[in-house]
Structure formats: structure tokens, C-alpha cells
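Q: What does the predicted 3D structure of LysR family transcriptional regulator look like?
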Amino acid sequence: MNFSPESLQAFAQAAATGSFSAAARRLGKSQSTVSEAIARLEIDLGVELFVRGPRQLTLTDAGCSLLARVQDVLAASDRLARQAGQLAAGLEAKLTLVLSDAYQSGQYEARLKELDQRYPDLEFECVIAEQGDVLDLVGQGRGNLGLLAAQSSYPPELASASVAGCADFGLFVAHTHLLARLPRVGLADLANWRVLRLSSVADQQTPLDDLPGSGGRCWSAPDYLMLLEMASLGFGWAALPRHLVSTYAEGRLRELPVNGWPKQVPVDVVWSRERPLGPAASWLLERLLNS
């Protein structure tokens, strides 16, 4: 059974105003048009929606029950029309952000709230990846924008810029690790223990570049959250975003007192030169650069 939008709007306005004439004024229609639309709706639904008094309309029990459903249908119709208009104007159907845990969670949450307010009907996807994986996903078109710890160079097909703020990295081990007992930790001390590294950054600049190698004593993982868990279990030391540690490992890890640490690491946003950004991605890029 199909119900005309005009009939549903007439019903909702008459229920809100308490009269056909007031509903007609709000809708810019004649009173007879509104009255006829509601009468047709009552026939289609098979129920009486109003008790028609001499001065004011009163909803019947059926009308009260159906009003919320009608309002849901009208709201869905509004969303459909709004999204169709945005798509017709060039808005992309979906926006994918490839995100490193190096990016501060507070900034990410603020940008998400702004995105929701500006484009409430846009499909949004967040993919967690690190370093080289971020570049691959954006380069392949799997993601529109990528956020990662700044690299010394990028593939020529990718554009890049520095976002506002930096990632705050520290060196961490489990409280039970022998390194945690030292009042000061030098590079030679670190070299004696297994390092936990990202597995996708062998040929790219990382926060670990100025630390000594550990020979074969290295375990790796594809993201910082997995490295955090490995460090919490005592398997080695790792350079980790401090906001990640405070959020997920409070009390389980100790930050090592090493000269030059903690350090601020710039964060870059990357996008493809070969695929033009849509309106939502362009807007989000500007917010990332200027917030």
C-alpha cells in the first residue's frame, strides 16, 4: 500500500496544529485540499485519525499510535531527498580514511563529530593501518585519505601535507621487564633486549630510526596496538604513541627514561594525485590541515 507524501504531511501538520486551517497555512495549501488528503489517508489506512470537533481536531487512539510512524516515514523521506541532492551535486557516496594510531585520538574524535554534523548521510569508513600499508591503501584507491607518522619521502603518485599537531612517542616496557628497573636507560641497554617494531616500515623513516639495531632480536607486528600488547606481556621494548598507552595500557607499561625521549613526531596526511577528491574528502582534508 502506497501513501502519498502530501497526505502524510497533511496528517502530521494537522496533528501538530490541531486544525485543518492551520495545517493548510503551514503547507501553503487550501483547507479543503488538506481535509481531502487526510480523508483519503484514513480510507487507505482503514482507521479514523481525528475526532473532528467544532473548534479543534483531536487525535483518535489510532491516530496517536500512527503519528510516530508517519513522522518516521517523513524523516526518512527527508533524508532520502537530502542525500540524493548531495549525490547529484557531486558528493561522493563513501569516504574512507586510512588511520594510523600515531594520530591523536582526541583530534580524530573532534573531526568525526564535525564530519557527522556536516555530512550526516555520508557513508564513512575508517581503516586502521600503519606506515607503508597506509600508502599502499591510498595509492590503490582503497582509501581517500591516509594519516601516518611523517615519512622522509612519498611515492610520486601521492600528495602529502603535515596536519596540525604531532604524535607524542615514548619508549615503553612492561613493569616486570628488567629494563624497567634501571634509573636511566642508555642506547647500549636497549641494544641488549628485543625490540618490537612495526612490520610494514622496513624502508621508511620511523620513530625508531635513531635507536641501535638489535640483530635478530626483533619481533614485529602490523600496528601499534599489537605492539602494545606484546610489550605488556614482557616480550621487549617498543616506541609507542603515548596517548595509546594511556588509553589501553595504563598501569601495565613503564615509560623508559632515555635521552631524547619522549619525542614529537610530525603526522602527515596523504592522498592520491591520480584520483580527485570529492567534496567531503576535500573538506575533511582542510579540517585536518587547519585544526
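A (community wiki): The C-alpha cells above were generated from the sequence. The mean pLDDT is 86. The CA atoms of residues 191 and 213 lie 6 Å apart.
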